[in-house]
Amino acid sequence: MEQGAGPGGVPPTAANPPAATTTTLERAPIPTQRSAQVEELGLDPGTVRVAGRSSGWLQRAVGVVVLLIAAGGAALLWYAVTSSDAGGRPPERGTLLGIWDVFYDTQLPSPRVMLAAVAVAVLLAAGVALLEQRIANRSRRSSDVLTDPLAPKIVMARTRGVYAGPVTVTVLIPAHNEQASLPATLASLLAQSHRPERVIVVADNCTDATVDVARAAGVEVVETVGNTRKKAGALNQVLAGLLPGQGDNDVVMVMDADTTLDAGFLAVAVARMTSDRALMAVGGLFYGEEGAGLLGQLQRNEYLRYGREMRRCRGRVLVLTGTASLFRPAALREVARLRGTALPGTRGDVYDTTALTEDNELTLALKSLGALMVSPEQCTVVTEVMPTWRALWAQRLRWQRGALENLGAYGTTPTTLRYWAQQLGIGYGVIALYSYLLLIALMLLSADGWVWFPFWMGLGVVFLAERVVTVWSGGWRARLLAVTLLPELCFDAFLDLVYVKGVLDISLGRTATWKHVVHTPTGARLEVGDAA
Predict the structure, then answer these.
(1) Given 386, 393, 413, 454, which residue has the most CB atoms within 10 angstroms?
(2) What is the mean pLDDT of residues 79-103?
(3) Torsion over CA of 162, 168, 173 and 174, rounded to 10 degrees?
């Protein structure tokens, strides 16, 4: 059968989509693949390890470690400020616009303090950027098959002179009771300017009409058997049967059942995969769907800022988002081969079923093997926003705890340094925001009157302008919410509480739960939770 061929040996195309079928698969192991270079050295691929894997204690204490380091940084900053020899002076009194008596203080922080603060910020930002660039360059140029089997130099050498056929796309959509959201997802796929060759809905323990909806849309359906490992387990079952028959250009795409693709997503992704055979994965940039009132807009603003940050990174991947990402089969097979040795997880599994955030963990796995990945700004998707604060709490707790647990599993390696820096930034942000709110509260309780500080007000104006500019593309609602400032500060404080809860849960060994928002045919969304 030809690469990407559908049932009966006929390659499915946009004009000849695959017939709707339903298949039930038992889990099967993925055959191991040996690298030619490893064989030449007489080594067993299963013994190849990546240096820096974490010890057991770090997986439990990772959150505490992050917070302690962040607290240490905050303490040093506090010491620098309080050790300043600038003498204090009482505020002055004046009249504003001739009618308003105010107290104001024009005293500035000492030059030493301001210089130290600016220098530390610049050094940290530049240090992280330079380190990330150096690590990326090392991976691109690496020819060490033992530590970087997916590095571009190695992949290019292995595939030189080999034509693997045109790039084809097989889409996997894991779905658990998604009868209401699935039609829009499938419609966005089938409306792509470059239509996928195969679309497979992975129906995982569904009790609604998900299977019927998928079959009515003319796509394939695979129903999992005995899966208790959520999304990761469902995908592992299907990939175990799919990957062995895939060629280098038979790209596998994984997308959520509550996501819709923008029209040119697949065309751009396929063009990237066609032009660069060393490219192992293409990720998407996500934006929030409309609705959910103020809470929905807060999430949309957050996603807008994330997308802007990714564009500024020129496509460098932070996370291959589970909303929609494409992978070369060779990359997924290599991950499955090295699970349990060089990578966390069970040998033969593409996804680590113990990870709460399987997309983040798979990103770390691919990066640890030297894979080249990109998130083009044209590859955008629209994903759901949480309709209630309770659902948002559960979602972000899973994200945050999963990210920390992934770091604990991988330890401190060149690949994970960028992620450690991110978590340290979040930890420091928790301390800084609540310290700021505490100081404001103490000032209000102890001061006889309000004192204005022009210097700090000027910094506040700069901060406010940044908040508005970074969501400008979201329209007037996004800008209005940003300029009011207080709602977004409360939202940030909420997310900080989620972070602290995640740290406590990991440290105390509490069992994580997986909350799932189910879309009903009437448009209502119900929250369902169970153990992860």
Answers:
(1) 386
(2) 63
(3) -20
Which candidate, 207, 137, 32, places its Cα nearest to that of 372? 137
Cα gap 325→379, rounded to integer Å: 9
Token pair, residue 74, equals: 């905050």
Average pLDDT over residues 265-292: 94
Rounded to whole angstroms, how far apart are CA atoms 151 and 331?
A: 10
Q: Report the relative pairing of strands 168-175 and 250-255 from DSSP bridges.
A: parallel
What whole-number distance in Å separates Cα of residue 286 and Cα of residue 273? 20
- The sign of the dihedral angle between the CA atoms of 161, 163, 168, 170 is negative
- Collapse the DSSP code of 95 into the 3-class scheme (helix H, G, I; strand E, B; otherwise coil) and give the result: strand
Q: Are strands 451-452 and 100-104 parallel, antiparallel or unpaired?
A: parallel
Helices (H), 374-485: 389-410, 417-446, 454-469, 476-484
Q: Decide: helix, strand or coil at residue 193.
A: coil
Q: What is the dihedral of CA 282, 283, 284, 286, to 10 degrees?
A: 180
Q: Is 233 helix (H, G, I), strand (E, B) or coil?
A: helix
- Residue 161 phi/psi, 5-degree rounding, is 80, 5
Query: What confidence tens digit (pLDDT) does each residue in 185-198 have?
Result: 999 999 999 999 99
Say which range, 12-26, 95-109, 267-281, 505-519, has the weakest mean pLDDT: 12-26
Nearest partner of 172 among 245, 236, 263, 247, judged by Cα: 236
- The answer to whether residues 215 and 221 touch, using CB atoms and an 8 Å cutoff, is yes
Q: Contact, 257 vs 206, CB < 8 A?
A: no
- Single out the residue of 397, 403, 411 nearest to residue 495, CA to CA: 397
C-alpha–C-alpha distance, residues 20 and 3, integer Å: 20
Closest CA to 196 of 332, 324, 307, 351: 324
User: How far is the C-alpha of 132 from the C-alpha of 142, rounded, in Å?
Assistant: 15
Residues 6+ apart with CB under 8 A from 101: 93, 94, 95
Flag whether the pTM goes above 0.70: yes
Given its phi and psi angles, is residue 110 left (phi above 0), alpha (psi -120 to 50 degrees) or beta? beta
**pLDDT (tens digit, 9 = 90+) per residue, 331-364?**
999 999 999 999 999 999 999 999 989 999 999 9
- Three-state secondary-structure class, residue 18: coil
> How far are the Cα atoms of 294, 306, 433, 488 from residue 491, in angstroms, in the given order?
11, 15, 12, 5
Q: Which amino acid is at 134?
A: R
pLDDT at 485: 92
Stretch 4-29: mean pLDDT: 43
- Whole-angstrom Cα distance, residue 195 to residue 197? 6
| CA–CA dist 382, 359 (Å, integer) | 17
